[in-house]
Amino acid sequence: MSIGATGKPTLVVTSGLVPNASVLRLEGELDVYVLPLLREHLRRIWELPATPFMIVDLGEVGFCDSMGVNALVEAMQECEARGTRLLLGGVRGVMARVLSITGLRNAFEVYDDVDEALGLAMTS
């Protein structure tokens, strides 16, 4: 959990493994203040043996600034270097708008529902 300028938690990050995939769930605000927390979770994932898929669940992200978008691009680049497909699940609302406005929606494999991404990873 990261504490923002207001002294309140702004992001909760949880991670785990399912067959064929590492899963990172983000809940809250994805902004410059939480990047150290996000990068720490990603570092732990990168230390594990590569999985065919990495799923980032964005369904509970209520805000994302340019630095948050940059962190997702960095994760995509690391996944590509490892031979891992990055799937963004739960992309709706704020995150759908952010990816559309930035022109990145087509750069990522995007799923409205995280269960779709999980299903693809588990059946591949």
UniProtKB/TrEMBL annotation:
Belongs to the anti-sigma-factor antagonist family. InterPro entries: Anti-sigma_ant, STAS_dom, STAS_dom_sf. Residues 11-121 form the STAS domain. CDD domains: STAS_anti-anti-sigma_factors. It comes from Nonomuraea cavernae. Pfam families: STAS. GO terms for molecular function: anti-sigma factor antagonist activity. This is Anti-sigma factor antagonist. The lineage of its organism: Bacteria, Bacillati, Actinomycetota, Actinomycetes, Streptosporangiales. Gene3D superfamilies: STAS domain (3.30.750.24).
